[in-house]
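Lest this sound abstract, we think one record worth quoting, the chain in one-letter code, the fold tokenised, each line plainly labelled:

>
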Amino acid sequence: MATLAVGIDVGTSSVKAVALKRTGSGYALKSVGQADIRRAEYHPEESPQSLAEAPLRALERISQDSAFSRKPCAFSVSGPRVAPRLFKFPSIPKGEVEQAIRFEAEQIIPFDLAQAALDFVLFDEGMEEGKPVIEGLVVAVHKEEVDKQYVLLKSGGFDPVVLDIDTLALSNSFLETEGVAERETVALINIGARFTNLAILHGGRRVFVRDIASGGDMLSRAISEIYGLDLPQAEKRKREAVYTPLDELEGGGGGDAGADMGDGTQAGGDTEGFGGGETESFQPVDEGGEEYVLLDSDETAFNTGSDTMTDGAGSTGGDEGFAASGETQNAMNAAQRISANRAVLVDALGDLISEIQDTFKYYINRRIVPRIDKVRLCGGTAKFPDIDEFFASQLGVPTQLWNPFARLDVSGVSGKFPPNFLDELGPLMAIATGLAMRQL
């Protein structure tokens, strides 16, 4: 099978495109593109027609690159019109499997299958109470969602040939670039504008996926409310926060780093972690879109080492009092900045944290995974300052920003961009990268 090579991720706020070439040692980046989609919330000055055409215009800008234009590509969808569901039934003859799956799907898919595109994958045959069972994953996507994306991509100058879902593309990207050890469990959190994609990888073959209706838009709204800005100003300020601390704004934002999360935990305080041990008195959450799939291969591309987390603080001797005082002032300034960022994060992402905590507890309590070993963040909002420390403190799991480009050969394109540009862009490109790694 040939590598597809081109992945197009049409999100809410931007279009991301990645072109790859498979090499003997992995993948080489051939081209990358990103174009913002102007939205009514943040561009009220735009006409309704201009806003309706914004996704197409973004695609057209990217398709000017010959690496993407009219090339076969993979695209993906997510959200409430996408329904991945697990199925299991007693072993039956192969000729009856497809009909049985369709019957099963009619019972568990939350919309009319006559209006859905349906596909499934079978896992290895298992045993339950000494009897063989058939297990697998069935995915239904509303046909209107598929048609809308397909027509949009064709109109924008692309040739869409493979449909995926965001969470599985995200998982594919990590498995191909980083890999997961046999007994390791990694949670991937891709924070988009309106949705957050959550994938839990256990070993090289199991992936549990879920979409959560919360994302970076909540951060913009929190900045708007705390600092008294309108939404366009707040969105601009969110993007600038990487370079200019929020506490330099007038208005609110001092915040309390120990603010209540609304679920009994304190931001920056002690929280129950998911690194091992038992979780007590947990009522399982509604399974909703949370399912798992055994992947085709249990091979890992890289054998990653253990994570270490440091606070970056050093020690000073008695003869370095003057230097130490400067370091103390720097530390105080950093603490003030973190406090301001933390106040916004608590306000904006408290519900998202709770959903992720409940999902972790669900899989741990049902002994589907033993623990969560580490968390990797990606997506545009994952670039917000101090968000990795915030997630680590709330989830009790080592958390880092994930850049899928770090494991690619970028030497062929790095000279086209400013220094560090690909490092900055990489965390936004996880889904597009996974799509480009699909096989024909």
The first strand starts at residue 6 and ends at 10. The radius of gyration is 23 Å. DSSP finds eleven helices and 15 strands in the chain. Residues 405 and 426 are 5 Å apart (CA to CA).
